[in-house]
Each structure stands twice: as C-alpha cells, then as structure tokens.
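Action item from last week, closing it out:
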Amino acid sequence: MIHITYFPSSNHSMSSGHIFFEIFTTFIFSQLIPNSKPVWNKTWELSKFISKKSYEKHTVLHLENYDKIIVVNQYRKWESISFQDFLDIKQLILNTQKQYTNILVKLGNVCAIHPDVLHSWYINKLLKENVFVEKAKPLLKNMYYFDHNSEPINSIGIHIRRGDLLTKLYNAGFTMEYYKKLIININKVLDLPIYVYCESDEKEGTTRSIIEYSSQFDGDYNLLKCLKNVHLKLGNLHNFSEQFNELARCKYLFLSPSGFPLWAAFISSGKILYDKKCVDFRPNLFRYVKSLPNFFQYTHPSNILNILN
C-alpha cells in the first residue's frame, strides 16, 4: 500500500492557487503509480478551492504506522517537475515497495505536476493514456462540485490580476485601456453579461494585508463600469470562494496571468481565452495550456472575434 501526501511550500492562504498545484499532485501521482492513494493532511486547508469534506471523500485515512516513509523535498520547480523527475520519484517508490508493505510518500518543497504539463506528456507521447482528460480533470470536477454549485452561467468572465504585481502587469500591457478594448470587441459579437473579477483596493482581506505596494492605480477598474454589459465584481478573502465558483461556471472565461483563474479554467467546461502575454508574463503557469482542449490563445483584443464567433 502506497500513500501519498503533500506539505505545501507556502503557509498563507493568499497563495491558494500555487498551493493547490502541489496538493493536486498527490491525486495525479495516485493515477500514475499503481496501488497508490492520496492522503489528506491539515495543511491542505490553506488552499480554499476544495472543502475538507470533499478531500475526506476522495482520499484515504492516514495510517497510525508505516513501514517506511519516503521524503521527497529536493525539487523546487515552480514550472512543474519534468517527466524524468517523475520517473525518478516513481522508481524510488517502486524500489522501496520491494522491501516494505505500507509506505508513506511525503512530497514537499515545490514538487508539483501541473495539469497542463501532465497533458503535454501525453501529447508528446511520454504517456500512453491521456491521464489529464480521462482521469485527472473528471476527478478534479468531482472533487470541486461535490459541494459547490455546478450550474453553468450564460455569461463572460474576465479575471484581472492586480495586487502586488499590478505595476509589472501594467508594464506588460495589462492596463485598463487594454481591458476596455477587449470588452468593446466582446460586445461586437456577443450580447451577454460581462462579469469583471478583480481584487479591490481595500487593505482588509486583500494582498495589501500582507504586502505593501503602490496605490498609484487605485480605482483604475472603474474605467470599465460604463461599458456595455459590464458588471464589476470586486474581490477579497471574504468572497474568494464565490468568485472562484462563478469563474468556473462562466460560458466564456478570459484569464489573467494568475493561478487563481487558471484553476477555475482547469475545472471549467466553457471556452477559455488567454492573451499570449500571459505566457510571456508567467511561463511557469502557461507554457503548455495551449494544448488543452478548450483553451484558446490570442495576441490582440481584436483576435478574439474569430474565437468567439
């Protein structure tokens, strides 16, 4: 019996997105290594995407005693471990299994397999089975929708990453003028509610509660309020779960270079659109998403017309 757990590299819920890359790796490992099961531990509560009840339903109980504990903490790869890294870990586990019956594998540091990377392994013929499409994504949806609303929303969701990266994002081209052009082009082909999700400028319950950064762009999102179909939805830790759920259920979802909307996109059955600037800004998150079935890349707001038609 092989049990796999993960102790996240961050201890703050503001990092919920990248923490879940690490946690969900235990479920991916269990689909790639025979006779292995994920084991919940209390640190997983730092990521707010999946409830404790759902984790308990989709994991097995930690044993009181194990014959052998394997600690894997030598990797610190924000971009995902490589296929060779995975093979090395797998071989270590299988070799240990020859000598011991009950084994606990404790993953730590940054030893994650990203869902899009998992899919790329199949595309590049490193895996015979499309584990992401056939196993990992259905499991992810079952885990999330176990106790969340799953009814589709006939709307367009746009996530705008702000917070501590705001100045860098502006410099990369993710300005409010950019989003204004994007929305104007959306309205040319679709007449649906456009929900714009972004972090508010409040200090309570936002990244400003833990990180000091410039206030020069405060209220910039108000530029979008007057545009047709737009409904502004300001976020903080208090409505984190509600906003994530709505993003996952939108018919069309425009991503920002952030793990938060990206996880909603992995769960989503809708059409996912993202600017190539997301890849340039966060290659560790977006390198391989282009190969995913419902993901569409564009290079300019005017390019979305053909995708949406």
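Closing note: The beta strands are 2-6, 36-38, 68-72, 103-107, 153-160, 194-199, 230-235, 250-254, 271-275, 295-298.
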